Amino acid sequence: MEQTIDKHFETMKKVPYFIFTKSNCKYCKYAKELLDDQCLEYETANCDIFLQTEESKKIFLELMGKKIGYCYKTFPMIFYKNEFIGGYTDLYNQFA
Q1: Is residue 84 within 8 Å of residue 75, measured between CB atoms?
Q2: pLDDT band, very low/low/confident/very high, at 1 (cuts 50, 70, 90)
Q3: pTM of the shown model
Q4: 18-95: which CATH number, 3.40.30.10, 3.40.50.150, 3.90.1150.10, 3.90.1030.10?
């Protein structure tokens, strides 16, 4: 799991926005739509595979917490130029 997350962080360096998402998350959908509306480039990583069990979810959130610098447990997890900016509301506020 850690290697996969590290690969996503490498990909993140190639695009302005990077979003860790999960299926059926309305705020993940809204974030992608907002970036599409702004004609901004982004990549996504669907994290469903990491969230299948409570144990894998715990490990995923711990690894992301280390990357982010603090515990963050909601989706989407949005990065701009390799810096964590937060979730959908934080992204929306960049354009408000």
Answers
A1: no
A2: confident
A3: 0.93
A4: 3.40.30.10
